[in-house]
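During data preparation, a discrete fold description was generated, and the record follows.
___
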Amino acid sequence: MSDGHSSSRESDQDQRHHNAAHERDERIRKRIGEALILTIYVVFDFRDEWPKNHVSALILGVIAVSSILLIELPWKKWAMTTAALVISAAIVWSVAPPVLPGETVNSGLLIPADDATPKTACTPNTPKNDATGAGWFFVTIAGGGVFTVTPTDRLIAISVDGRPTVVIERSEKGILLDVDMFNPDGTLAVRIEKNAWTASTAQTFKATKIDPSTLSVVGVHGEELLWVRYMNANTVKINGTFYKIGDPQPVVITDSAISLGHMQLYMAPMMTPVPFVPCFIVGTADFRDPIFTFK
């Protein structure tokens, strides 16, 4: 009988060891699954969403963590834990809103909106990645503008009297602006470096990121100095008031007109003044000259 009981105990121990090994394998598989879920989220979702919208990125993060908890916890504990997670995230947000590294309230990429490119005689009907539309970019002022077909990711959009005034740096995620605007007396009116700005010591301007795609700069009296909208992945619209040093008459660009003051307009690659037309095409592959020049 003792041999029978001993065999039974050994069998029970073997079964328990087997069950423990099975549970361990299950836990390992779950950990691997969780790691894959987090990796997929971080690599493909959070990375793309965070520069565009911090709130939606954090919401996606809470959903990802909650989904992982659902694998581990029974319904009641999962609901309680998820609720605590949401409350904690809300408290953290209210006390210390997250800020993208290198980004402040006065900076950050402008990301493309979903506006239509203005229709002109030379507006392409093909998307950017189409074989005939690859690389084209449209800088629009006063309802018209200049198309460039160029691999260059850094373009001088506007220059005034030989000075690069509005420079656009493009990437897959958005655009950055470098801006130097002067007063007629030669003092610096506006300086923006890679979308980051600080008010001048004289407080001569105020820059505001109106929405993720639009940057507005106004003067002390509320006058519009610069307005830039990243309309879509192929199009940037620019309005503004641009002074030449020593000239009290500025160039004023609005939605539908350009007032040249005492200056003349040159559109690349023209070397002589030209009247403003709804559309101008620049097809030089290594194009790096200013798109619009006022002098």
